[in-house]
Amino acid sequence: GTSDPYVKFKLGGKEIFRSKTIHKNLNPVWEEKASILIENLREPLYIKVFDYDFGLQDDFIGSAFLNLTSLELNRQTDVTLSLKDPHYPDHDLGSILLSVLLTPREEQREAFQTQSLRLSELHRKSQLWRGIVSVTLIEGRELKAMDANGLSDPYVKFRLGHQKYKSKIVPKTLNPQWREQFDFHLYEERGGIIDITVWDKDAGKRDDFIGR
User: C2 domain: from which residue to which, for each copy (predicted)?
Assistant: First the structure.
């Protein structure tokens, strides 16, 4: 009864931005930010929403167009777009909310600095990232037993710079199956080493470290 939504933005047929995937949610909150160089304002921004499916083709949820000529210069505009499926134009597929700021090129950097103060440092730097690394955590094999019952309750933590993810906990097993996806943004000024640690969840006391 849920989806794992992510959003793709296209301009002139080219993908220019892809959001992270938010799992098991019909009301996702992304709060991601991208800075896009627009050559032609008459080219609409094409927005497509998908449901991520592990190992299968992702499901199309719906799409919308944003007419850039309707935006006022230097004014932050909140936009709500209704998602549609071209094959079923009458179906209500939900909506997507954007906050858009259109600035002339020379003012761009300054405007973004002031507009994005309410976002965290990470989101401010989203305009500088150069790619996405999608990591799919599949399974663990023959992990170390940390509990008295000869088993563990393993989970995995990922860290790349300021970005952190934590998998779900799989109880009482040394061969956990996760099948979860995590998306990292790669930045210019930082190396690409992802720190991966495995832990055993312990209720009421500190979790046991299994390995890195």
Answer: 1-81, 113-212
Q: How confident is the model at residue 117 (pLDDT cuts 50, 70, 90)?
A: very low
The full set of domains in the chain, from first to last, is 5-105 (2.60.40.150), 129-211 (2.60.40.150)
Residue 99 scores a pLDDT above 50? yes
Which alpha helices (DSSP H) does the chain contain, by range?
108-115, 121-124
Give every CB contact of residue 4 below 8 A, 6+ residues apart in sequence.
Answer: 21, 22, 23, 24, 25, 51, 52, 53, 181
User: In Å, how far are 20, 57, 82, 161 from 50, measured between CA atoms?
Assistant: 11, 10, 14, 27
Task: Supply 29's token pair.
Answer: 């909150």
pLDDT above 60 (res 112): no
Q: Are 21 and 54 contacting, i.e. CB atoms less than 8 angstroms apart?
A: no
Residue with tokens 């779900």: 168
Burial class of residue 49 (count of CB atoms within 10 Å of its CB; 0-12, 13-18, 19+): buried
